[in-house]
Write a structure and sequence with these properties.
By secondary structure, the protein is an alpha+beta fold. It has one domain (3-141): Nuclear Transport Factor 2, Chain: A (Roll), CATH 3.10.450.50. Helices cover 31% and strands 39% of the residues. It has three helices and six strands, in the order ααββαββββ. The chain has a six-stranded mixed sheet, with helices on one face. Helix 1 (3-18) runs antiparallel to helix 2. The longest helix is centred in the N-terminal third of the chain and has 16 residues, at 3-18. It is globular, with a radius of gyration of 14 Å.
Length: 142
């Protein structure tokens, strides 16, 4: 198996674990971060809601602001990965109840213009049937 193939297999296992009913939202956040670092927009699909929208405020990962359906957010991230990359994703905080999870992470990236930056991503997740899904992704300066 190639190095890329083995990384994809690991991410697949993480994503599968994140989708399991009753799992902590931390697994979903970790899987989201892993998909960002791998530049894998398809790896983010399991974390996107099938109904409703995700509120976004993305400056370096976008630019995009507003409320997007899962497929639209997938397209925005896919476009980012064509020209930019995420170098690291470090979870800083996560708090959750049975109905809401809030997380923040430090992200090092190279944006679509080739500029290196460190940002903070703020994530909001909600349970959706048997999994946790993203409902908000907001970017701010570190």
């Amino acid at each position: 198996m190639t190095k890329i193939g083995s990384k994809a297999a690991v991410v697949g296992l993480v994503l599968l674990a994140a989708a399991t009913h009753g799992d902590e939202p931390r697994k979903t956040v970790d899987a989201f971060g892993a998909a960002l670092v791998l530049g894998d927009a398809d790896g983010i699909r399991p974390m996107l809601p099938t109904t409703g929208k995700v509120r976004v405020h993305l400056v370096r990962l976008g630019p995009q602001e507003g409320a997007l359906r899962g497929g639209q957010l997938h397209a925005v991230l896919e476009d980012f990965f064509e020209r930019g990359s995420v170098r690291s994703f470090q979870l800083q905080t996560i708090e959750h109840s049975s109905r809401l999870a809030l997380a923040s992470a430090q992200v090092d990236l190279i944006d679509a213009k080739g500029t290196r930056a460190t940002i903070r991503l703020h994530l909001s997740l909600e349970p959706d049937n048997d999994r946790w899904v993203l409902r908000e992704i907001r970017e701010s300066r570190k």
